Structure formats: structure tokens, C-alpha cells
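Predicting holo structure, zinc ion bound.
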Amino acid sequence: MRTWTPPVVPQLPGEGVAPKLFNTASERLEYPAIPEGRALLYVCGITPYDATHLGHAFTYLAFDVMLRAWRDSGIETVYAQNITDVDDPLLERARDTGVDWRELADAQIGLFRSDMFRMGMIPPDHYVAVTEQIDAIASAVRELVDRGFAYRVPTAEAEGEDVYFDTDAAGRSSQWRLGDVAPYERDLMLRLSAERGGDPDRPGKRNPLDPLLWRAARAGEPSWESPVGEGRPGWHIECSVIATRTLGGAFTVQGGGSDLIFPHHEYTAAHATALSGTPLAHAYCHAGLVSYQGHKMSKSRGNLVFLSKLLDGTHSGAPAADPSAVRLGLLAHHYRSEWEWHDGDLGTATRRLEAWRSGLARSTGDPASSTGVLQQLRAALANDLDTPVMLATLDAALDRGVDDPGLIASAVDALLGVRL
Ligand code: 5CA
Ligand code: ZN
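Done. C-alpha cells:
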């Protein structure tokens, strides 16, 4: 898939250090492996039916900052992202609004692309839609069946049979164990599976947690011919196949919002390990979920703040936002924190941006050392991307004035994507 024009990221003098990152799987801060000096990042992309809300933006901004941290420390990056462009909620929305599902997806992907460009987000090197990889995904499902990691379940709704992943077989015969990614108890796994696209109560499954790998064709649903029968892929095998085809096995970081820890990232890892014998990734990093009006921002609830509306000035009467102010509004929260967006946050962030801009032009008798500030920014960034500390450092320095405004402007641009 076509991406968007990348931002120009200034090169800074000296070098930062590779960031230490919180790994959900180990529940520790770690330096994930960087194979052959290249940081390989996969971030789960949008399901294109209601793009782009501030929760999405917060997640993608976290990984944009991660890429900037690696690059500043002299590490080359390879970034892959998928598009879940055939999925139940997308098909439902298309049906409800009387639009062809492909047209709905194309329009939303276009909007996402333009939002990401306006926000100065580093684009993925590999941007892959599920519908571009159906054959590879179906072959992977076939291989899982052939190797005893998957089984068929008949359904009255279709002529063909659905295919499920066998959690217990994989736990016995592959290197993956349930709970490798998600440090959760079984009861919580069952609840999350039901809430997030799984079907623990479906009769005929060997283990209620077993996720769908292939859905046999139903009337009125899109489907493809394949070696496992006519149908369409399940969610986790899509990301598993796209990630390993673009980045290989054991890549540096698998990322997304924390709603993806279970079942999505658990089973993405399970499928990949069963297929390849190697773990999917060294670390699993997750952004905290953003709320609005008291609840997690979600398409199903409809409590959304759209990025395009903020940027256009069409969200509840607020003036058009400077993309740098939106970045500052989001970066004021550590990427792992769960927090709520309030409409006043944009004004606060805009005032901070203005204060920084005027601080840059300020000449005082005792300016802060810009190289010292850069060092502090890099140290905070290397400490699990601690952007709130970076913002506080800049508040203090720019309040006082700095001895090399050009260096600070470049540093803020390179590390935070904020233009002064
Ligand atoms: N297509 C799948 C991933 S393969 C999906 O989750 N799509 S999504 O459109 O629902 O979300 C896109 C990304 O934004 C995911 O990484 C998701 O975890 C993240 N996300 C969704 N809602 C929020 C939220 N309220 N706060 C933070 N991140 C969110
Ligand atoms: Zn995914």
C-alpha cells in the first residue's frame, strides 16, 4: 500500500543511546535485541472504518517517538504496519451505511494517510493490507492444519468448515506457551477473548480460547478461494503472516495499544512460533488507552475525538489546531499511561507551544546550555520514552532562554516531531 510523505528529521550532533523499553511479556524494562544493527518494528494498523481518533494517534505517536529514539542513537530502523481491511466491524459498518466495504476501507485509509502526514509521523517502510496477502495467510493456515496445530469446526451457517488454532497442541509441541505475551489469569483471558473478537462459547472448539484462523464463506460476506476452502482469514494470523513476511522472525518490537495484548498479540506470537519455531518478537510494547467523556475512546461507543476535526478546527467549536500542539497534548502523557483527553487539553498544549516559540527567541543574561538540554532530552527519551520529563526539561530551559536556539529547535523537531 502507498504510505505518505515522510517528515524531514534533522540530524543532531553527537548520538543518543538506544532506548530501554518496557516489555509487556516480561513486565520489565529491557533493551530489546537489534538484529544486525537494525531495529525492526511492527505496529498493528487500523481497521479502516472510523479513522483516525486521538487514541489511534496516541498509539502511533508512541511508536513514532520510538523510531526517532533509535534513529538518533545511530540505529537503522525498519518499520512495518498492517491494515485490517476485511473484518467484522468494517463489514458491519459498510452494511449499515449501504456502502461497499472496499470503498469504505479505501476512504478511511486515505483519511488515515492524510492525518499521519499532517502529524509528521514517520511512515512504515512496509504498509500491507490484509487483502494484499490473502494467499500467504491461507497457506499459513494450511500449514498449521497439516502440522497438527489447527482443526476444523463445521457450521450450519456455511458449506465449508471454519478452522481454529489448537492452543493446547501449540502449548505442547511448539516453543510458545499461553501467557508468554499476556501476563493474565485464565478468567481474564476468557473475558477479554469474548470482548475482543473471540468466541469462547462456540460449540465444537477444543479449548474455549482457541482463536479463529479461517472463516468459511458465508452468504453476503467477502471470501477468497484457498487451499483451506473458500473463506477469509481470522485476525491474529493476518498480523502474524504480515509481520514475519516483512520483518522475519524474532524482530525487535511488536507494538500497538494495550487493548491488543490479549488475545491479539498473544496469538499472533503463538501462530508465528508454531509456524517458524522462533518467537515472534523480542519485546511487546503497548501504549495506554485514551479515554474521552469518562470511557475508553472507541468506535463502538462513539466517544471519539477525530484528529482531522482537531486539525481542521471542526471539533466542538475549537480553532484549527497546529499539529505540533496536538503532538504536545499527547506527549504530555507517558505512552504507557491510561488517561483522559479533555477539550481544554488542546488550549493547554497550544499555550505551551507558544511559550516554547517565544522562549526560543528570548535572550537572557544566563541562558541554559543547549548541549546540556539535549543531553537531558536524550536521557529521558532513552528511559522508556519519557516524554513528560522531556517536556518539563524544555519548559524550564525555554523559560530561561537557551544559548543555541537552532540546536534546541532541531532537537525538538528530531526527537519529538514538534516544529518550533
Ligand atoms: N486493526 C487492528 C489491529 S491489527 C486494530 O486494533 N485496529 S484499530 O483501528 O481498532 O486500532 C488501531 C490501533 O490503535 C491499535 O494499535 C489499537 O490498539 C490502538 N487504539 C485503539 N483505540 C485506542 C485508544 N482508545 N487509545 C489508545 N490506542 C488505541
Ligand atoms: Zn494486529
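The first helix runs from residue 54 to 72.
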